[in-house]
Specification:
The chain has 8 helices and 6 strands. Strands 1, 2, 3, 4, 5 and 6 form a 6-stranded mixed sheet that branches. Helix 2 crosses helix 3 and helix 5 packs parallel to helix 6.
């Protein structure tokens, strides 16, 4: 995995510009806008401290918010996921997925959508992520840390129904056993939820078949300073950074 920030290569930009709306008129090149967003993802600085060799922070932030709100970021993420799966010799979309959550502390200026995860003793937010067996992120919802996993899971899965037509099974732990399984049974015909957890007597991290890739994804977040804690005022911004992180990882793999 790339351990430091590098600007987009020509090969990486050639891939991205086929997906992004590059014909938009503006003062700055979209390649420089994307570079600035990925710099923020890796370095984790305040928007207003964006270095002078990038476009003005207000312009970068405008596109950061716009691409999340109009679906451009989700489209980019899905397209890159499909490209990476094909590169690995897999079908374009997955049939087996894994869902899990990660509670994280919030920064000092984060006030909305916060709560306390009583099990992990964390005051902040919770990332609900669904990945395939390659660790690629297909869906993410961020909310208060006191939200129950089984309740939020339906919000993560429902948007996937429009384009993951091969989805057959979702792996989850005991937190999803009641509410989420009941929702799936009542709303999605043919989709199986398989509950798999570490033995009660086990100590420390115990890798569970296929579900460990989601845990690995959470671990990779720590290499991106914007994700090592939740510094965002809105949950939508945190969701955006997670999708940008997935896009960055795929670009590095495809063009390695």
């Amino acid at each position: 995995m790339q351990s430091s920030y590098n600007r987009l290569t020509t090969q990486q930009w050639e891939i991205m510009k086929k997906i992004l709306p590059v014909k938009q008129k503006g003062k700055y090149k979209l390649r420089d806008i994307v570079d600035a967003i990925l710099w923020q993802l890796r370095i984790g600085d305040q928007w207003r401290n964006l270095p002078d060799n990038f476009p003005k922070w207000g312009s970068v932030y405008y596109f950061f918010r716009k691409w999340k709100s109009n679906g451009t970021l989700e489209m980019l993420n899905i397209s890159l996921n499909k490209m990476e799966r094909i590169r690995q010799g897999k079908e374009e979309t997955p049939s087996l997925l894994s869902i899990d959550s990660q509670s994280i502390k919030s920064g000092p200026f984060t006030h909305l959508d916060k709560g306390i995860d009583g099990n992990k003793k964390i005051n902040g937010r919770k990332r609900h992520v669904i990945t395939d067996t390659a660790g690629l992120i297909w869906g993410v919802i961020v909310g208060a840390a006191n939200q129950a996993d089984g309740v939020v899971a339906s919000e993560v899965v429902e948007p996937l129904l429009g384009y993951l037509d091969r989805m057959e099974k979702i792996l989850a732990d005991d937190a999803y056993k009641k509410t989420f399984m009941k929702w799936v049974e009542g709303n999605i015909a043919g989709l199986e939820v398989e509950i798999s957890s570490a033995p009660p007597s086990s100590k420390g991290f115990v890798p569970i078949k296929w579900r460990w890739v989601t845990e690995r994804t959470f671990g990779i977040f720590n290499f991106f300073r914007r994700l090592d804690k939740d510094y965002e005022k809105t949950t939508e911004s945190q969701e955006s950074w997670i999708l940008w992180q997935n896009c960055q990882m795929i670009l590095n793999r495809i063009t390695k």
